[in-house]
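Entry for the shared binder. Reason: the reviewer on the internal report wants the predicted structure included alongside the sequence.
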Amino acid sequence: MDTRVKREITHEGTCYVLDHSKIKEGDVLLTTSDAWVSSIIKKVTGSAFSHAAIFAQDDGIIIEAVPPNVKLSSVLGMAIRERKNIKVLRWAGSGAACDTHAIVTSANSHVFKDYSRKGAVLSKAPGSFGGEEETGLFCL
């Protein structure tokens, strides 16, 4: 049973809602927030973002790895306080085409697998892997 409790959060001011009609299958959504864990992730990774998800379906479904597991979520309820807190990445390379459907199919195969806090923490420690096989995932 999930013991987390949702708290109502109020915010006065402008909020931006993602227009999912402009996002394509396989796009990567990078986001961040003011949460303390987000601040730590950004500091350790040297990035302006702390979370990544893959856009999976035209009706606003994303695949993301968040504790306790990899899950399907909807961007329909996602509101961003500042535009700088979200970025959408799309393959635009020349040469070999990007098979976005294959990327989404692969990500879908991981739905419901465990989230790995250990993997997330050790991802910035070179040479720390190699022991016990890690089966959990983080930041698809």
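Summary line for the report: Residues 36-45 form the longest helix (10 residues).
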